[in-house]
C-alpha cells in the first residue's frame, strides 16, 4: 500500500512542480510583455496602454504602443514560442542537445527559401510561409539522407548539418547581394534574425502554425518523451516509433520554418530554449511547453536588450547569437569534462 | 597510433611521378592565370589584352584587363596561403576536417580588424595585418583549447563544433561592431564574405613579408609534420620536440591565414579541400604535400574567382561564396566517407 502512496505523492509533487514552473514562466512572460509595451524610448502609463489595447484612440500613445510596440512584442512572443517548441522537439527526438534545427541547418533552409521567395519570386505572406516550410522539410530530408549510411549516427548528422548550413548561408549571402537595394537592416534579418518593422498581420501565419503544428507536438508529448528512452524501449511502451517520429519532424520543422519566414533565423533560440527549460524543470514531465515559454522569453528579452539597453540598436539575433555561442562552448567543454563522447 | 585513415593516400610513389605531377600542375596554374586575365565580366579582344599586358590603359577593355592582373596574382597568393595553412592545420591537429574557415580562424582575424578599425582607429595597411594575425592566432589557440579539452583529445566533431560556435559568436560581434559605427558599416559585407576583387599591388606588398615568413615556417616544418603524423609518443621517441614542432607549424599557418584574411576577408573551405586532393595525388609526405597544396590552392581559388565572374554576369560573385558552394559538399563527402568511430 505504501508503495502506491509513494508513487501517488511523487506524481503529485512532480505535477505541482511542473505547474509552478509553467505558471512562473507565464507570469514572467506576461510581465515582460507588459513592460515592453509600457517602456521604450518613452514611458506610457499602464492605463493608457490598456486603453490603446481596448481600441481607444489615445493621443501620443496610440502610434507608439499600437503600431510599434504591440506588433513587435507579439511577434517576438509567437516566434519565440515556435522556436522553443520546435528546437526542444528535435533535441528530445534525436537525444542530443546539439541536434537543434539551427545547428543542423534546418532554420537556414527556411531562411534561404524566404530570401529566395522575397528577392527572386517577389512573394510574401502565407505563400512565403508555405515555401519556407517546404524548403525546410526538403533540407531535413536531405540532411537525413546524407547522414544515412548503415544507420544515422548523431555525430555524422550534426557534421553534415554544419556543412549544409555553410552552403545555405552562402546561398543567402549571394541572393541578398543580388537584391535590387542592398539594405543592411533587411539583410540582418535573414542573416541573424530580427523583429524590426514588425506588423500585426504577420502574426496570423504564426498563430495558425502554433495552433496546428504546436498543438500536434504537445498532443504527442508523451510519445516524444518515450523516444528519449531509445527506440526499442519506446516501442515496448506502446509508442508507434516511426509514426511519432514522422509527425514530430513535420510539426517541428513547420514551426521553425514559419517563424523563420517571419523573423529570420533568430540565432540559437531553438538551441538554447530546451536545455534551459530542462534545467529549470528537472525530471518533472515533458519539457516541450516550458521550452516554448523560455524561447518566447529569450526573444522578447533579447529584443528589448538589443533595442534599449545597449549603446546602439541591435537586432535580436545579434544579442541571442552572442549569448548562445558561449553556451554552446560551455556544452562542449562540460561534455568533455564528463568524459562523455560527443 | 596510426595515421588517420581518412588522410592516407598512396603510400609511396617514385619521385619521378611526383615530379611529373608538379610540372603538370605548374602548367595548369599558368593556363589558369592566363584565363583569369583574359576572361571576365567584360569581353575583351586579344589585342587589348596584349596591349594591357604591355602596360597600356587607353580603352575600357585595357583598363579592365589591367585590373584583372593584380586580382589574379592575389587569388594565386591567397589560394596558396590557405591551401598550405589547411594542410598544416590538418597535420598539426591530425584531423581531416581542420580548415582555417571551419575552425573560425579567418573570422577571428576579421573580428580583430573590425574592432581595430571601429574602436582603435587603425587605418594603415600594415596595422591591419598585425591586428589580423593577432586575431587569427588568438582564435586558433582558443578553438583548439576548447576542442581538445577532456578525454579523446581534439576529435573532428569537437573541433568543428568549437569552430562553429566561435564563428557564430564572431559574426554576431562583427555585426555588432559594424552596426555601432554606421559610417564604416558599408564594409560589413566585405568582412563577412571574402573576395579578391579590388586588389592592388600596393596592398599586396604589405602582406608579402608575412606570407613569405608563413610559407617558410610551414615548409621548414614539413619533416616535423611527417613525424607528428606518427603520433606524439612515437615522434618524441624519434627525437622530435613535439610541442615546439606544433607551435612552429601553427605559427606559420596562422601567419598565412591572418595575412590572407587581412587582404581578402574570410574565405572558407579552400584549406579543407586542397590537402585531401593533394594526398590523393602525391601521398602523405608533407615535403611534397605542402608545395602541392600551395599550387592546388592557387589553382582552386583562381578557378573559383573566374567562375564567380562568369556565373553572375553582369555583376560578380565573391570568391568566398563560390568556395563555400564547392567546399561544403566536399566537407559532407569527407564526413560520409569516414567511419563513425573515427569521427
Automatic annotation (TrEMBL), chain A:
The keyword Zinc does not apply. Coiled coil: none annotated. Pfam families: FecCD (PF01032). Its main location: membrane. It comes from the Bacteria. It is a multi-pass membrane protein. It is found in: Cell membrane. Keywords: Cell membrane, Membrane, Transmembrane, Transmembrane helix, Transport. The keyword Methyltransferase does not apply. The chain crosses the membrane at residues 20-38, 73-94, 106-123, 129-146, 158-177, 197-218, 246-273, 285-302, 314-333. Belongs to the binding-protein-dependent transport system permease family. FecCD subfamily. This is ABC transporter permease. It comes from Paracoccus acridae.
Automatic annotation (TrEMBL), chain B:
The chain crosses the membrane at residues 20-39, 69-89, 101-122, 128-147, 159-180, 200-222, 243-268, 288-307, 319-336. SUPFAM superfamilies: ABC transporter involved in vitamin B12 uptake, BtuC (SSF81345). It is a multi-pass membrane protein. It is found in: Cell membrane. It comes from the Bacteria. Its main location: membrane. Keywords: Cell membrane, Membrane, Transmembrane, Transmembrane helix, Transport. The keyword Transmembrane applies. The keyword Transport applies. PANTHER family: FE(3+) DICITRATE TRANSPORT SYSTEM PERMEASE PROTEIN FECC-RELATED (PTHR30472:SF1), FERRIC ENTEROBACTIN TRANSPORT SYSTEM PERMEASE PROTEIN (PTHR30472). Belongs to the binding-protein-dependent transport system permease family. FecCD subfamily. This is ABC transporter permease. It comes from Paracoccus acridae.
Amino acid at each position: 500500500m505504501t508503495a502506491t502512496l509513494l508513487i501517488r505523492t511523487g506524481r503529485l509533487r512532480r505535477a505541482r512542480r511542473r505547474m509552478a514552473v509553467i505558471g512562473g514562466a507565464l507570469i514572467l512572460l506576461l510581465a515582460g510583455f507588459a513592460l515592453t509595451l509600457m517602456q521604450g524610448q518613452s514611458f506610457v502609463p499602464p492605463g493608457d496602454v490598456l486603453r490603446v489595447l481596448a481600441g481607444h484612440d489615445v493621443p501620443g500613445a496610440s502610434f507608439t504602443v499600437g503600431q510599434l510596440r504591440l506588433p513587435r512584442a507579439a511577434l517576438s512572443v509567437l516566434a519565440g514560442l515556435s522556436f522553443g517548441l520546435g528546437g526542444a522537439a528535435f533535441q528530445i527526438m534525436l537525444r542530443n542537445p546539439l541536434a537543434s534545427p539551427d545547428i543542423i541547418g534546418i532554420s537556414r533552409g527556411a531562411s534561404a527559401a524566404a530570401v529566395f521567395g522575397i528577392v527572386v519570386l517577389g512573394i510574401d505572406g502565407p505563400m512565403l510561409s508555405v515555401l519556407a516550410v517546404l524548403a525546410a522539410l526538403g533540407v531535413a530530408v536531405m540532411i537525413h539522407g546524407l547522414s544515412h549510411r548503415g544507420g544515422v549516427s548523431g555525430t555524422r548528422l550534426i557534421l553534415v548539418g554544419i556543412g549544409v548550413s555553410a552552403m545555405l548561408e552562402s546561398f543567402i549571402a549571394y541572393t541578398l547581394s543580388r537584391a535590387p537595394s542592398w539594405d543592411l537592416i533587411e539583410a540582418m534579418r535573414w542573416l541573424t534574425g530580427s523583429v524590426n518593422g514588425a506588423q500585426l498581420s504577420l502574426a496570423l501565419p504564426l498563430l495558425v502554425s502554433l495552433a496546428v503544428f504546436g498543438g500536434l507536438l504537445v498532443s504527442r508529448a508523451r510519445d516524444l518523451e518515450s523516444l528519449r528512452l531509445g527506440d526499442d524501449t519506446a516501442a515496448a511502451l506502446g509508442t508507434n516509433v516511426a509514426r511519432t517520429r514522422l509527425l514530430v519532424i513535420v510539426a517541428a520543422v513547420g514551426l521553425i520554418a514559419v517563424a523563420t519566414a517571419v523573423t529570420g533565423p533568430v540565432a540559437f533560440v531553438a538551441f538554447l530554449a530546451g536545455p534551459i527549460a530542462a534545467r529549470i524543470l528537472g525530471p518533472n514531465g515533458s519539457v516541450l511547453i516550458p521550452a516554448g515559454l523560455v524561447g518566447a522569453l529569450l526573444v522578447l528579452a533579447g529584443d528589448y536588450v538589443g533595442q534599449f539597453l545597449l549603446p546602439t540598436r541591435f537586432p535580436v539575433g545579434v544579442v541571442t547569437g552572442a549569448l548562445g555561442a558561449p553556451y554552446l562552448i560551455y556544452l562542449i567543454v562540460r561534455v568533455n569534462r564528463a568524459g562523455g563522447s560527443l | 597510433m596510426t595515421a588517420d585513415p581518412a588522410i592516407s593516400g598512396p603510400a609511396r610513389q617514385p619521385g619521378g611521378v611526383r615530379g611529373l605531377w608538379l610540372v603538370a600542375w605548374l602548367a595548369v596554374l599558368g593556363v589558369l592565370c592566363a584565363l583569369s586575365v583574359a576572361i571576365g565580366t567584360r569581353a575583351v579582344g586579344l589585342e587589348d589584352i596584349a596591349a594591357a599586358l604591355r602596360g597600356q590603359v587607353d580603352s575600357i577593355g585595357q583598363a579592365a584587363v589591367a585590373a584583372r592582373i593584380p586580382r589574379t596574382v592575389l587569388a594565386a597568393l591567397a589560394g596558396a596561403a590557405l591551401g598550405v595553412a589547411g594542410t598544416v592545420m590538418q597535420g598539426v591537429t591530425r584531423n581531416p576536417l581542420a580548415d582555417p574557415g571551419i575552425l573560425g580562424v579567418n573570422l577571428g582575424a576579421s573580428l580583430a580588424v573590425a574592432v581595430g578599425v571601429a574602436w582603435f582607429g587603425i587605418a594603415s595597411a600594415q596595422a591591419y595585418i598585425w591586428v589580423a594575425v593577432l586575431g587569427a592566432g588568438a582564435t586558433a589557440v582558443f578553438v583548439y583549447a576548447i576542442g581538445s579539452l577532456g578525454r579523446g583529445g581534439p576529435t573532428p566533431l569537437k573541433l568543428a563544433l568549437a569552430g562553429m560556435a566561435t564563428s557564430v559568436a564572431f559574426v554576431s560581434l562583427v555585426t555588432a561592431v559594424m552596426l555601432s559605427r554606421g559610417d564604416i558599416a558599408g564594409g560589413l559585407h566585405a568582412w563577412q564574405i571574402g573576395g579578391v576583387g579590388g586588389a592592388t599591388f600596393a596592398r599586396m606588398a604589405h602582406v608579402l613579408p608575412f606570407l613569405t615568413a608563413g610559407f617558410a615556417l610551414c615548409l621548414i616544418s614539413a619533416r616535423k609534420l611527417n613525424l607528428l603524423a606518427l603520433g606524439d609518443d612515437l615522434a618524441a621517441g624519434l627525437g622530435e620536440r613535439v610541442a615546439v614542432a606544433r607551435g612552429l607549424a601553427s605559427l606559420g599557418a596562422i601567419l598565412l591565414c591572418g595575412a590572407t584574411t587581412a587582404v581578402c576577408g574570410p574565405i572558407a573551405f579552400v584549406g579543407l579541400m586542397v590537402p585531401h586532393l593533394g594526398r590523393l595525388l602525391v601521398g602523405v609526405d608533407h615535403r611534397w604535400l605542402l608545395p602541392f597544396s600551395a599550387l592546388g590552392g592557387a589553382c582552386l581559388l583562381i578557378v573559383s574567382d573566374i567562375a564567380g565572374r562568369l556565373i553572375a554576369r553582369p555583376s560578380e560573385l565573391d570568391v568566398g561564396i563560390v568556395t563555400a558552394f564547392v567546399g561544403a559538399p566536399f566537407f559532407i563527402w569527407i564526413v560520409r566517407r569516414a567511419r563513425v568511430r573515427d569521427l
